[in-house]
Amino acid sequence: MATSAGTLDITEVVRQVMARLKEVERSGRPGTGPCGVYASMEEAIQRAEAAQKKVARMTLEEREKCIAAIRATLRAHARELSEMAVQETGMGRVEDKIIKNNLVADKTPGTEDLITEAWSGDRGLTLVEMSPFGVIGAITPSTNPTETVFCNAIGMFAAGNSVVFSPHPGAKAVSLRAVELINQAIQEAGGPEDAVTSVAEPSIEAAQVLFKHPAVRLLVATGGPGVVHAALTSGKKAIGAGAGNPPVVVDETADIEKAGHDIIAGGTFDNNLPCIAEKEIIAVESVADYLLFNLLKNGAVQLKDRRDIDRLAEVVLTPEGKPSRKFIGRDAAVLLKAIGKEVPPETRGIVVEVEKEHPFVQEELMMPILPLVRVRNVDEAIEFAVEVEHGNRHTAIMHSKNVDNMTRLAREIQTTIFVKNGPSYAGIGVGGEGFATFTIAGPTGEGLTSARTFTRKRRCVLVDAFSIR
User: Fold this and answer.
1) What are 122-164's pLDDT values in tens digits?
2) Which pLDDT value is given to residue 274?
3) How many whole angstroms separate alpha carbon 274 and alpha carbon 439?
4) % residues pLDDT > 70 (the chain)
């Protein structure tokens, strides 16, 4: 968390952002500097539509210059944005959000992701190019607000689109600060005004305007089942990045010491807010005790008394058994204090042993609570992992040295991301190979999105010419 001085500084930044938003509401346009935030969604879309015509005429070199400026801006403001996000939403850890923001700056693909296909033969030359959709409407969450805005903006702009963001109202100030910074970076690098826009007061009504507007050619929804369903039933082409409930399986062949470290590292990262994070542990009985020892060794505490576990469930879950918004993304110490337990503030997570049917196992909590379920053997572990993932096809993790076991789980669970012998965040490029993204489209099948995801393929055919073989 920020120091007292840091808190005062970030409070002032939030105050300034909110003041600019009020100015937008009054005038429809901010009075100080490039912003891209408008009083109505209709105007935000119109501005983005005009900007996209200019983006489409930019060379790849010009686009890449703007992207480099966006990356540099994000690195420079990573701490500010991370502190703002924690302060506004009450969720996550500042230091972990800084890692996520820098990951986006460093490993989000740009124009190099756009690949041209070609065929040549007796009848001439055919090219298939990746071209922009035009204006993209993007819905972003409160869990990864600035990471998703910057990641989407880089990929969508690289592909030649403009983008209109409809951020989660619970992360309004920090999301719109991100939009402002992106616009400043693009313009300072010679790009057009309003390549990225948003609305001053995000709402369901504003999102509906985005869903229905004829100028918006593609919708990209990152969030829970409700927002993804709304995008998919809009009548437009839509990319849906929905929720997950990632299991982590530990079999008897695993390096248990490494598994204990990695599960705590991934499962408590940013207080378990990332959808890829380990949400429940499924351990083969023969190694469960030693795994538990190593989980506690790496910064977790265990609730052993069933009365304490039941009390924690009563506090952090709604009467319907769903995660309480009040406790999502909160520190382990905060969760335990709510049931009268005091632990050091640096405590990373809470481990509880429960049965398979427990809501801690069945629901995606997005809290640093790691339920552990013991099973008899790896066959039962794999079967239960598939069941508890609930068909989201999002992420699964396994610790094993048996290639056959890992292959079986990968084939049966069919997740977009499958991490073997590492923390979950290796699946988005932290300590693992591959590019980063915060829009992971499991429901619609695009997988880890990048610039090429936000393009449409166009075929250009030159008949009886330019085949020089």
Assistant:
1) 999 999 999 999 999 999 999 999 999 999 999 999 999 999 9
2) 96
3) 11
4) 93
The three-state (H, E, C) secondary structure of 271-335, written as one string: HHCCCCCCCEEEEEHHHHHHHHHHHHHCCEEEECCHHHHHHHHHHHECCCCCECCCCCCCCHHHH
What integer pLDDT is reported at residue 434 of this predicted model?
A: 96
Q: Which residues are registered as beta bridge partners of 401?
A: none
Distance of CA 140 to the CA centre of its chain: 9
Query: What token pair was written down for 331?
Result: 């520190």
For the chain, percent helix, then strand, then coil, each to nearest 5?
Answer: 45, 20, 35
Question: Is the model more confident about 21 or about 208?
Answer: 208
**What SS3 class is residue 445?**
coil
CB 22 within 8 A of CB 166: no
From start to end of 205-262, where are the E strands?
216-222, 237-241, 247-250
| Backbone angles phi and psi of 13, in degrees to 5 | -65, -45
Q: Right CATH number for 4-242+448-457 from 1.10.40.30, 1.10.10.10, 3.30.10.20, 3.40.605.10?
A: 3.40.605.10
What angle, rounded to 10 degrees, do the helices at 172-188 and 4-27 form? 80
Q: In whole angstroms, give the CA distance from residue 14 to residue 12.
A: 5
List alpha helices for 58-93, DSSP H: 60-89
Q: Choose among 332, 331, 334, 335: nearest CA to 311.
A: 335
Over range 261-289, report the average pLDDT: 98
- The string of pLDDT tens digits covering residues 216-256 is 999 999 998 899 999 999 999 999 998 999 999 999 999 99
State the DSSP H helix or E strand holding residue 396, giving kind and residue range, or none if neither: strand 395-399
Q: Are 170 and 163 in contact (CB under 8 A)?
A: no
Domain range annotation of the chain:
4-242+448-457, 247-432
Query: Hey, which bits of 25-134 come out as E strands?
Result: 37-38, 117-121, 124-132
pTM of the model: 0.92
Domain 247-432: CATH architecture, name and number where available: 3-Layer(aba) Sandwich (3.40)
Radius of gyration, CA atoms only, the chain: 23
